[in-house]
Amino acid sequence: MTDVRSGWPWPRRMASRMYLILFAGLLLAQGLSFGLMFFERYESSTSVMLNTLENEVGTSVAILDRLPAGERAQWLPRLQRDNYRFVLGPGQAGTPLVSQRSRDVTAMIAKEVGAGYRVHGDTISTAPERYQVHLTLHDGSPLTLVVTPRGVMPLAEWLPFVLVLQVALLLACGWFAVRQAAQPLARLAKAAEAMTPSADGPRLAESGPVEVAHAAMAFNAMQDRIGRYLKERLHILASISHDLQTPITRMRLRAESLGDGVERDRILDDLREMEHLVREGVAYARSAHGGDETPVRMDTKAFLESLVFDYQDVGQPVTLAAGIEGTAKVRPRALRRVLGNLIDNAIKYGGSAEVAVCRDRQGRLCVTVSDRGPGVPEHELEQVLQPFYRLEASRNRDTGGAGLGLAIATQLMRSTGGDLSLANRDGGGLVATLTLP
Q: How far apart are CA 427 and CA 371, in angstroms?
């Protein structure tokens, strides 16, 4: 998967990007080094070859010039080399020299043998390159040097294999370095994903390089601060609840002592709503910690059958659809409370509830609670999971409620490592999906 927003097909993962940059840099550096070394060796070898050619040709011409004309032909094979040979005679007809190298070679030979040999050159062919250097011996005999330049291989045959091995070694070291740099970030991301509202997620090991250890210490300190903040919030709400219970009780007793009337009933209704809000507020605060129960692994199908049968025993329209089987490690009381809240809402707003078990695209076990009620507007599906958000403007808890039921359910699920999401059903209604940890 690539990121094309910048116009380049960059990999999405940081480690892949770093490795790609290192790979490209090493490849370019090795290519540049190889090219410079090849050029330097080529220039050096060419210079040595030309100097050798200059000296050997000068010596060979001197030998042929001093030999009797009848013996010169016998010496030609001895004086022949891989890239040039001597011919007795004027040679072939040619054209003026076209390459700079041929002109340089002709000039060096002329300088080496001297002006008395009347040196000049011409080109026989250009592909492949072949040219002649004409000389005139002191007895007037023509002598022709036929030069066929050959490519110079200045590198040893084993050198490319060494370069490949070097690149592989550098890439392996680069991969190890990138892995060492990316692993702490991956651990930090996993720890952040596993962190729950109760701040009881896994703590990072405060070891390794200074920067990694500092980031781990900061993350652990953040978890501690979140835990202290949540405990303080729970303590404040519990204290408020405790302090409010006494005056509410006194007010209810005084209201009950009043004579029967409409005002007395209204006061008692307001007091009952106040008690309900206080209880819901405390329940929401405690839901951040998922309760005190220990997670256990249980059979999801058996658990749901027990819950649905309890509803059916009291005549509630709740059904359990045939689904897959599986086990999950959950807090049973917290899960029962969440499912009870969702089933009650489905019955309340849709007239019935359908419970099912399935798996999502990642293979995680999920429980769904569906109804055929009015559903929720698409733009409010996320908002209804927030505390004190209600679709109905009425504050009557028989219609609009306190706006904390779904928030409590969401926080309970997230505190145990799961999640809660809502979606509208095709054909009308709402489906609530619990992703189990």
A: 11
Number of domains observed in the structure of the chain: 3
pLDDT tens digits, 105-164: 888 888 888 888 888 899 888 888 888 989 989 888 999 988 887 755 555 677 778 778
> Which pLDDT score is estimated for 1?
47
Q: What is the CATH number of the domain that holds 381?
A: 3.30.565.10
Buried b (16+ CB within 10 A) or exposed e, 69-80: eeebeeeeeebe
Whether residues 90 and 64 share a domain: the answer is yes
Lowest model confidence (mean pLDDT) among 65-74, 183-192, 326-335: 183-192
Q: pLDDT tens, 172-213?
A: 887 787 777 777 777 777 777 766 655 556 677 777 777 777
Domain of residue 381 covers 292-435
Do 422 and 298 belong to one domain?
Answer: yes
